[in-house]
Write a structure and sequence with these properties.
Order of helices and strands: EHEHEHHEHEHEHEHEEHHEHEHE
CATH architecture of the largest domain: 3-Layer(aba) Sandwich
Number of helices: 12
CATH superfamily of the largest domain: Rhodanese-like domain
Strand content: 5-15%
Length: about 270
């Protein structure tokens, strides 16, 4: 069933710690306090980890839609500053509330870097098992590395592509927003099916297949995923890919872009 496994166990990460060519990235963040994640990181983190913030480090500050994938040069610089090069094995983790690890994983995939994993259980799983931690700021990389962005447009959808996708009606559009975000917006892209990331995070690949099938999607169905700003949708993408789904894209602008455009249709729920 599996095509790729985007996830790595705490046990396997423990075996990789300290090995050359491995970089662990802490992506914890709070949307209410932009510096919370960095403070938490400096208080305690996986040994040898570096910190990356979704909005500050992985996104495009010039884009009017907040949180869009950083352009190639900016993303390259962010990766090289953290010691991530073309051959680096990357393991990302978060706190299981905001799925920053999946977002970094997807961003790396969007730029052609496939040697990346999401830590199953995240930071809570690591600490609950009593695994080692350390404190302090990110250590600068010991050696210079080169990260070469190789954009893969096949996994990133634009608003115009989503409009075309809906017009054709030959696939499934999945809304991965958290329940509170979904409820507060009280609207969605017409035709979208609910596939909330917090629920998906608790599923194994067989449960993911069952959930997707109930929404009319099999492993060959074209699927576009969106959320509020591209983060939760990245987790949905990773979970579906692990379950063998092949034709997946994240609508990066997501509801932030769609809802701000008076020309796009919205459907109440």
């Amino acid at each position: 069933m599996r095509r790729e496994n985007a996830f790595i166990s705490t046990e396997r990460l423990s075996e990789l710690l300290g090995k050359p060519g491995v970089r662990v990235v802490d992506t914890r963040l709070s949307l209410a306090d932009e510096e919370w994640g960095r403070r938490e990181f400096e208080a305690s983190h996986v040994p040898g980890a570096v910190y990356a913030h979704w909005l500050h480090d992985l996104s495009d500050p010039e884009d009017p839609v907040q949180g869009q994938l950083a352009p190639p040069d900016r993303f390259r610089a962010a990766m090289e500053e953290r010691g991530i090069g073309d051959e680096t094995l990357v393991v990302a983790y978060d706190d299981g509330v905001i799925f920053g690890a999946a977002r970094l994983w997807w961003c790396l995939r969007a730029y052609g870097h496939r040697q990346a994993w999401i830590l199953e259980g995240g930071w809570p799983g690591w600490t609950d098992e009593g695994r080692p931690i350390e404190s302090g700021a990110s250590a600068p990389p010991a050696d210079h590395v080169t990260f070469t962005p190789r954009p893969d447009p096949a996994i990133r959808a634009t608003k115009e592509e989503v409009l075309g996708f809906l017009e054709l009606g030959e696939g499934v559009l999945l809304d991965c927003r958290m329940n509170e975000t979904w409820e507060s917006a009280a609207a969605h892209i017409p035709g979208a099916e609910r596939f909330p990331a917090p629920s998906v995070a608790q599923m194994d690949e067989y449960e993911v297949v069952a959930a997707a099938a109930a929404l009319g999607a099999d492993p060959d169905t074209p699927i576009v995923l969106y959320c509020g700003g591209g983060v939760s949708a990245s987790l949905g993408f990773a979970a579906l890919e692990r379950a063998g789904y092949k034709n997946l894209r994240v609508y990066d602008g997501s509801w932030s872009e769609w809802s701000a455009d008076p020309a796009t249709a919205k459907e109440s729920h």
